[in-house]
Amino acid sequence: MHILVVSPIPTHPQFQGNSQRIFRLCRMLQILGYKVHFLYYTLEGLDGAQRVLMESCWDFFHSVSCRPLKRSMTMGSHFGLDDWYDPQVGDVAAGLHRRWNYQAVIVNYVWFSGVLESLPSNLIKIIDTHDVFGDRHLRSIAAGLKPEWYYTSQQEELRGLQRADIVLAIQNEEKKYFEELGLSKVEVVGFVTPPNFLPLRPNQRKMTIGYIASSNPWNVNSFLYLHAALEKRPELVKKFNFEVAGPICNVIKNENTIFNASGILDSVSNFYRNVDIVVNPMLGGTGLKIKSIEALSFGRPFFSTADGMVGIPSLYTQHNASSIEMLVDHMQNINENTTRRLSAESREIFSAYQRHQMINFKNVIQGI
Fold it and tell me: Would you say which domain of life the source belongs to (predicted)?
């Protein structure tokens, strides 16, 4: 059984949530018996090391060189549906299908759905949405952030999603949103990843609280709010060590006086091995906060705002802080005696979430 996965984002390296998402979904397809053909449009570049990694990981690897497109905003205040799409990808995909006769094609992002127009109607067409892009710029402006990356209108988003037979939402709130647009075949498939539970670290003179994130504006804004809240709590700054890692370090380096910044690491597991507690101070945003699931997958005691846990059911108060100030208040109660309980609760929430997502994923694939 052969399946085509089309993406403008590489699966290697996995420094951001979107590449992690694509990697894990392709891995699950392989586990379920599919031969994965990964067609990568080199929007984010392709060096020799990346090519070797992707060729060795996927059953078949294909690439299309990214042309210097203008990506002009054809709709005035927002991008048109296909402003970021390159039609040569559709030509390559059609040629691959003629050779391999795929059972299905999965396209990552609605703004790359143009490839589906080049493929026959008897092929099962799936869009993995990753996020909501309709009126995304308006949500950024409302949060005081400059709109970045791709954003469009709800009408354009709907037009793209209607190209698919199945639309994958990454969490329930987005499924509801897509259904309210008028779509009928929407399935929820969250982030499926194996457990990486770590033992608690030996007693430290000072425990370390860590945050790992990409450099997108929502993460940066959330970090700066957390930093400001901690500046008002010198007793916590004295009680704990604070660590930040990931691409965000390149952006916040001039505004950070509390966190030790370790930058991009060769392996995220190294970050989790070196911290006792993980936080996600997320404020707003859409999609699924993969960094939250990742932290839970390592079994680390985890503290988050409610925004950081959207789509990840939990009744524990430390996972649902209504504000960053409340999140910081939770830190006050951390000690050696509470970390074992908090770690067990992280494992519990992660395991329940994964069981549910596995069932959803298998149901979608069996439907193919």
Answer: Bacteria
